[in-house]
Give the backbone structure.
Amino acid sequence: MKSKSNLFENVQETLSNRLKPWERTMQFWVRAVNVYTSYKFCQIRVKYVKGKEKQERMWEDQHEIAADRIYSLCYDLGGFFLKAAQIIGKPDLAPNAWVKKLVTLCDDAPATPFEAVQFVIEKELERKPNEIFERFERIPIGSASVAQVHRARIKGATSDVAVKVQHPGVQDIMMTDIRNLKTFAAYLQKTDIRFDLVSVVQEMEKQVDYEFDFLREAKSMEKIGEFLKTINKGKPSVIVPRPIWGMITRSILKDLTTAYGQMILKSGFFHADPHPGNILVTKDTKVALLDYGQVKDLPDVLRLGYAGLIMALVSGDPLKIGKSFEELGIRTLTNASDNPIAFKNLAQMMFDTKLPPGVKMASPYGEGSSLNDVPVQSFPEELFFVLRTIQLLRGLSVGMGINYSCAEEWRQMAEEALSSAGRCIDSQRKNDKGIGKKLRFWRRKQRV
């Protein structure tokens, strides 16, 4: 037992001191500044190069270099940077070079040694693992920023379970990471990115503590599972969980979209971390959502405000979108009446999965981004995980070659949510084609 305890303490010390807080801070800033300045230098060099193809090659080379550096930063330092990699490593947000590198960190982060895992289980459950489990696989199924998962079978059971074990000491290093990211976000917000990044990081900071409360996660899993079962009359399109590894399909993207629409618009309590490592497929081709460490409970005022925004997005009216932004507390430096096209494009980029014609990747911070025309001055922290969910769904759809509108898919749910709250719904909805339109969408996309 002493050797296990020593190993646990060594792992905990390695993680929490990986490096000491001031060393982590120094390492982060050295590496972050390295990536940032390399892009600024590339930006200057490109101005002196003629020909669009040559300029694009220069940017591609820069993205390759930066991808290696960002991957090393996230992998070497671990902690919150692994979660950051999950957020930005999607084909609709980041360059392809970044995505190829960072996507491997979704469920293949550095793992805690098995001996330390055994000690954690014994310490938390006050029994030795061999007293609880008939079988426990030493190699984890996957390892992420907060914990890793092992396949096991409880004694007397007939099916396997997934055992999630926290990395020792990781909570302390995450708080150090968030403080550094908050400072970096404040700088980028003032100099390069015209969006309220600080509020985004602050919301992530509030959610981090929840990820370490596995009891809360279990209750959240149970609550969401029961809600989806009830609203779908015992036949939910998304199950919570027992998963097996598999592939995402077009029908499963539809199931995911439906489930998230139901959770966000009808309940307000939703799974807020749908990256590819948390989405698996069962033997009967149903999708399973894993990892309920990040869940969000939207207050009704934001839930209904978002339902109103969905209706405004479907209508395509920039003035209605602007009114919904005001209701949600989203403040921009440009009004909808001043630049209606850019305002509409911004809303679609933030809150819809559909890409404009001819656009293969929606980069919020690129040269053609609507953020350049409509800077976001303030953004409600509580809406960040709705925004993140939209971006993750778009990332999945882009990766699968499907261009669809989650706003159109959620229109009916938004109507029902507003009606249930006694709020008036724009009569213009009668012009929509409704469910038939949605069904035709999925048939059409399956022929792609």
User: Anything to note?
Assistant: Residues 4 and 93 are 43 Å apart (CA to CA). The two ends are 58 Å apart (CA to CA). DSSP finds 17 helices and eleven strands in the chain.
